[in-house]
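Please check the following.

. . .
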Amino acid sequence: MVLSSFNTYLRLCILGALSVSAMNATAATIDLIAVGDDGLPQVELDEIVVTATRTPTKISNTIAQTRVINSEELQQFQGQSVIEVLKRQPGFSYYGNGGMDKKSNFYMRGYDGKQILVLIDGIRYSSLNDGSATLNLLPADQIERIEILYGASGSSIYGADAMGGVIQVFTKGNNVDRSNFSVTAGIGSNAQYLYGASAQLANTNGTSLSLSASHNETNGINATLPTNTFNYNEDDDGFESNNFSIALNQRINEQWLAGASALYSKSTSEFDSGAQDAYTDQENGAAQVFIDWRYLPSSSIKLQYGYAMDSINTKSNFSSVYDSKQDQVSLLGQHQLPVGQGIYGLEYLKQDLESTVYDDANDRDVKSAFLGYVLANNQFDAQANLRFDDNSQYGNETTYNLGGAYNFNTNFRIGASYAKGFRAPSFYDIYSGTESNIDLKAETSDNYEAFIEYDTLMQSTRLTGYQNKVDDLINFVARYDDDNNYIGGNSQNIEEAKIKGLTLTSDWEIDSYLFGGSYDYQKAKDNSGGANDGNFLPIRPEHKGLVYIGYRLPSLDIRAEYQYVDDYYYSISNADSQLVDSYGLLNISGNYQLTDNLSMTARLNNITNEKYVTAPNYNTDGTNFFTSLTYNWY
């Protein structure tokens, strides 16, 4: 169906879903296992999330679209990075420069990765250099759970770098229910090897400890194509990493809980830089310690200190060093009110960057205060947030959001929200490229979202429409020679950009069968009135979709998926040479419990050996596989 008006399209979709829900409301409810928002069966329909509101909230009571990737789904991504998990989720687009570990970026609902806040156990993980997180180096096997908050409501909850959404990663060991020890060994295409071990210890004194370590290495693929005449080097570009995580929690009594956690990764990644052997040594990590006082059953105060680091040492024709550190202190309170729950907090963030490239880059700090309100009952859901940030480099800014939903019955609800977003330029925005741009303005945005949602014990379906206007959007404007090679550029403010779209998700479970998928329609365009007015923003395909079918038993979980990505432009100029063709990928993955203690995981990607690229002149892998065995002692 082709519609000339986005608003008409949204209204028709809403009316269609209303009619479907009316028919289904009269049907008998089938008593099956519930389906979580990630498409896998759950014990309960209502998963509890914390990212959407900063307080534990049922996912069925959140206003902004929220998605959960749990431990069962993460098992299907053994040997791969978090970016491999996220690029298959609704609302995400992605590009990479040759191989799973190489430089990459992701986009969520048209917002760049540097506009998406990434947290590890509540601590900022994004690099100070370019503002984005190195999710291509974050191993999936070190993670227990991922929560995704779509849209700009995160800006008024977490701060300026959450203008487009929030991704929160939870390390293993935050919920240890019994002691166990496990070892894992895996092998895959391109001489990939993975081995690791983990231990979880729990006792009756309220103490839990989790330790995990893994090593991952691969010969990789050739990162560049021969058309990349400036960087091409006909060799495989390998990668190896060592990864560690720890989590310690101590329940002092019914009121007091203390804990600490850390995640650390050290890696070496080879890449092409002409005839020279080039590589990057990188260290990434985040750590936190907290104490939580629950003075009433639904009221608490939490004090948390966090530290994050990102060290990059590149050896190539253009050698460079970036060392960034972030110190974070937060005081978060939640108090049960006669109606609803109040949330309040204070935060202090100190950011420091030392670089051989940015002579003028130094440090900055942000002081913040915020208030929030959450209402969740059988008929109404509501959320309101107000946040004040004082940035030592860009001054003061106030952001807020308002949202509400009406529950027609236990299965069907509709809702809408508005959020004001803000993002200060990163150091990369200001100083990168052939010329610095110290006059860059901060980005601001107005974000509207509406949804209809229908959930039963056998399915979960949601249609979300959004429309965002971004003022002073920062975009890197690159210049290319006649052979399509990069020759320079810098970051510039686009006077205005508009992003609008629809996301449809539907996940079903009937007996032991799982099926469903997602579809994204998106138009993200320059609206500045300048030379690129009306052009598509880079790496934002107009259409994207995924369908899957699976079969699950207590000892077996297998799933096949097909993902389609529409063509898109790699540059704001929308030149023909910067057009990336559409592609479709067929993958299959599964877990099998061989014995009570031994399990097997396998994944086969790009079964049809599709020839495609995500960035001009950079290579992608053909058919590839990974399989692993895990042995558990309980």
Q: What stands out?
A: The longest strand covers residues 486-510.
